[in-house]
Amino acid sequence: MSTVKPGRYSVYLRPISYFIDLSIINGLALLCFFKSVDPVSFVFLISIAWVVISLYSNFYAVFRYTKEVLIISLILRQMALFTLVVFAFSGLYYKINILPETIFKYVGSVFLLISIFKFALYYLLQRYRVSFGGNFRITAILGKNKQTQALEEFFTENPEYGYSHTKTFSFKNITDEEIEACFRFIKEEKVDEIYCSLSQLTNSQLNKVVDFADNNLKLVKFLPDNKDVYSKKLKYEYYDYIPILSLRNIPLEDSVNQFVKRAFDIVFSSLVIVFFLSWLTPLIAILIKLESKGPVFFKQSRNGFNYKEFECYKFRSMMPNKNAHLHQATRGDQRVTRVGKFIRKTSIDELPQFYNVLFGDMSVVGPRPHMVSHTNMYAKKIDKFMVRHFVKPGITGLAQISGYRGEVETDKDIIGRVKYDIFYIENWSLLLDFKIILKTLINTIRGEEKAY
C-alpha cells in the first residue's frame, strides 16, 4: 500500500493562476493609465478579454509534463493577442488618448511579472515533488514491452514530473481473471492513472479497462505501440455527435495563427526591404552588370501554397543560360559568376524573396520551394513530398538549418528535407520561427558548406 498521499489541491492551481494574473493586469493598469480610463469598464472588459483569449490559446494548459519551450510559446502567443486587445480598447475609447509607448510598457510589464510567476510556480512544484513527494500521481502500466519499459524508466528517473509508479503488469496470453486482478490492485493502491499498451490488449479488454476507469474515476491513457497511425499527432473533432480523427493537425490552419504569422511576415519583410534592400540592391546591381550582361534579378517559377505556381525572385548569380530552370547549381558550377559565388555564399542572392513574402506568395519561414520540374519529379518518387504544400514556402526553414540546404545530391537529402518540413508544418509556433531565423543568421555568418 502507498503510504504517501498525493494531495488533491492541484485543482486549485489554475483558479489561483487566473486570480494572480488578473491582479497583475489590473494592478499595473492602475499605475499606468487608470487616471485616463473608467476603472470599472476597463477591469470588466480587459479581464473578460484575458479569460477568453487564455481559453482560446490554452494559456493555462500547463501540465506536469509540459516543457519550458512550450510555456514560452504560450506566453508569446498570449502576449501578442493581449496587446491587440489593449490597443482595441484604446481605439474604442479614443478620447482617453493613451500613447502607444504607454501601452507597450504596460503590456511588457504585465508579461514580465506573469512570466516570472508562471515559471516560479512551475519550478516550485517540481522542487516540491522531488523534495517532499507531494503533488504526484500514482501510475500503473498494463503490458510490458520496450515502450512501456521506457515509460516506466521515465516515471522513475524524473521525479520532478510528479509520477509515482507502482507496477507494470506483464501479459502473455492475458485472461479476464488477470484483468480483474489488475483492477483490484489499482483500487487497493489508489492508482490515479492507468497506461495501456495497445499491442498487449485486445479490443474487448481495452473496453473493459475504459469502463473500469470511468466507473472508478481513474484516468486511462494508451501507448501507440502497435499501430503507426496512433503514433501520429491526431486531431479529435466531433461532427454533430460523430467522433472524427484527423490524421494531421496543422496549426497554421487556425485563423489566429494565420493572422499572427502573416502580420510577422509583413513586418519582418518590410524592415528588411527598407533597411537593407533599399541601399543594397543598387550596389549588387552595379556589381552584377559590371561582370556580365543580363538582368539584375532572376525569376523562376516555383510551387507554393496548395501547389500554386508563383514567380520566385533572386539576384542573378549565373550567366544567362537555358538550363537555369531545369538544373540546380552544383559544386564548381561553371555557370556561377564571381559575384554570384559571393552572393550565394553569403545568401545575399535570396534577399529579393522578401518581396515575395510581402506580396503573400511566401513566408519568412517555411519549406523551401522547389523548381516546378523538380517538384513534379519528387512528387512521383518521394513519399509525402506534397505535404510540404499545405503551408506557404519560406526563405529559410527547419530543414535548411538542420543540414539539408542547397543541392539535392541523393534521395536521402530530399527525404530528410521532407521529414523536417513535415515536422515544422505539424509543430509550427512563432517561437519556432524565431529559433529558425536566429539559427539561419548564425549559419550565414559562419558560412555553410553547401552554400555554392
TrEMBL record:
Name of the top EC class for this enzyme: transferase
UniProt superkingdom: Bacteria
Keyword terms: Membrane, Transferase, Transmembrane, Transmembrane helix
Compartments (UniProt record): Membrane
Transmembrane segments: 12-36, 42-63, 75-94, 106-125, 266-288
UniProt GO cellular component terms: membrane
Pfam family, one: Bac_transf
Gene Ontology molecular-function annotations: undecaprenyl-phosphate glucose phosphotransferase activity
Primary residence: membrane
Domain Bacterial sugar transferase: 261-445
Keyword Lipid metabolism attributed: no
InterPro entries, A to Z: Bact_transf, EPS_sugar_tfrase, Undecaprenyl-P_gluc_Ptfrase
EC number: 2.7.8.31
Lipid bilayer topology: Multi-pass membrane protein
ATP-binding as UniProt keyword: no
NCBIfam families: EPS_sugtrans (TIGR03025), WcaJ_sugtrans (TIGR03023)
Protein family (similarity comment): Belongs to the bacterial sugar transferase family.
UniProt protein name: Undecaprenyl-phosphate glucose phosphotransferase
Organism: Oceanihabitans sediminis
